[in-house]
Amino acid sequence: MSTHFGGRTLARSQALQLLFQAEANSRAVLSVLDGDYALSQGPLDDYARRLALGADEMRPDLDAVIAMRSTGWSVGRLNAVDRNLLRLALYEMLCVDEVDVAVTIDECVELAKAYGTDESSRFVNGLLGRVADDLDAGVDVVSKAREQAEKSVEAEADQDMDAEAEEAAEQDAEAEQDAEAE
Predict the structure, then answer these.
(1) What does pTM read for this prediction?
(2) Residue 85 · residue 132 · CB < 8 Å
(3) Helix, strand, coil percentages, rounded to 5, for the chain
(4) Which of 8, 19, 26, 158 could form a disulfide with 84 if both were Cys (CB 3.0 to 4.6 A apart)?
(5) Dihedral through CA 106, CA 107, CA 109, CA 114, nearest 10?
(6) How many C-beta atoms surround the C-beta of residue 139 within 10 A?
């Protein structure tokens, strides 16, 4: 499939490429922009720069929203294209008022078809559609995702404490058996 885009689609494509490069090199987008970076088409569009920097700045919150809506898949298990496309789209949906949410979703689905796997476009469309439904219902998706992330951390901590207590009880039982055997 051709990846020759124009206008805002090109800007989104460039932003995706910047986000991908930043993640692949464990760098911030600003650091990538300050050095050498590669674009399939250039020069860098101002809107691409805005999207990439904004999505990078909000990455923890965007990842929390992705985690909340990608049931059964951690953010880290998603392929890098899908993960960065979702970050890009969510940033645009949440922070760019002049672009309609439906346009953002359609554009990112097209980018998923161009850059992702055979399943990427359906996955991206489904996840973004669920977020759009939440936004239409007046849900503050970022706050909701933060709360869910906090609950997950608390639940993991509780599980860790339970596992430690169980291990300590097993060690005590073994020590008692060893003492009785002597």
Answers:
(1) 0.78
(2) no
(3) 75, 0, 25
(4) 19
(5) 150
(6) 13
Token readout for 42 is: 């250039």
Burial of 154 (0-12, 13-18, 19+ CB in 10 A): exposed
106 alpha-carbon distance from chain centroid: 18
Place of tokens 């922070």: 95
Q: How far apart are CA 97 and CA 107, in angstroms?
A: 16
* Span 11-36, pLDDT tens digits: 999 999 999 999 998 999 999 889 88
Cβ within 8 Å of residue 128, ≥6 positions away = 86, 89, 90, 93, 104, 105, 108, 109
Write down the mean pLDDT value for the chain: 85
Residue 89 in contact with residue 65, Cβ under 8 Å? Answer: no
